[in-house]
Amino acid sequence: MLQSIELEVLATVERGDTISDLATDLDHSKSYLSRAVAGLAEKGLVYTKRNGREKQVIPSDARAVELYQDFVRQHSHIEFPELLTGKTLEVLYYLDQPRTVAEIAEQSGNYRNTVNRVLKRLRDRGLVGTDDGCYCFNGDFGRLHDFARELAHHLHRQRLESVAPNGTLLWEDYDEFLAQTETEIDVEGFHETGLAHFAAFDLQFLLTGHRYYLYSEDLDAVSPAELCCHTLLIDDDTRHRSYCLLLLSRIDVGEGDLRDKATKYGLEDEIDALLRYLETHGDVEDDSLPKWSEFQELAADYEVPLQ
User: Among 11, 28, 120, 168, which one is most buried in terms of CB atoms within 10 A?
Assistant: First the structure.
């Protein structure tokens, strides 16, 4: 997410510092510092302006910058720029409560050995400890989780604003986010989802003026299980639930995959209600689900067979 030199600059820079000042303070060449500052500026974490022949570097007012600088100053004996590289920020992102290595590995999509190495480094420096097999923060080091969250959120906002200035984040993870936009996005990494994507499964619905995209560098296409979850995140009303029920009735979506995605998006109860609704032909007490007779009519309109 951030290179060690970028974390060094972010920890050191004060309003009015020049590239020359930073090169002297950090004992790096001006060219090396210039590249690091350019990377931070692209991420919206610092700004630069010319002052004669010198370029001044100004920390942005992003919450992540404030959290990081305050924390580094209070714990100046810890080499955070070295410590927070690699997978460390990702592990910190998911340490929002006491968790086992296996839980963090599952949530982050990393190998257990990778997570274990990161946590061992943090434990060796006294930042985290263990209690009944779970890792948790010591003292006020829980603010490192806040920094990791704020930094990921800031970078998501920057990425979205670069292609859709009026876009809105609806859900986010460490390296993915779901966004609502008013314009079409045709940029690598952004995958259309929401009602428009139902057409890929032969279901055509009346669309609103909004478009929806999942940003993910690891995804090739939005699966039916993901589409169902995205639809509920966009709007969990009866209409959108009905559309999800049509999709689940038309496409053979593996229950295991669907429940895994529900866990990822925090929709376990909602997905369980949809599955029970289909299994029992509507015998579920849930006002946000349609009456079975109404759903039968809807399914007939879209030529979706029901079991």
Answer: 11
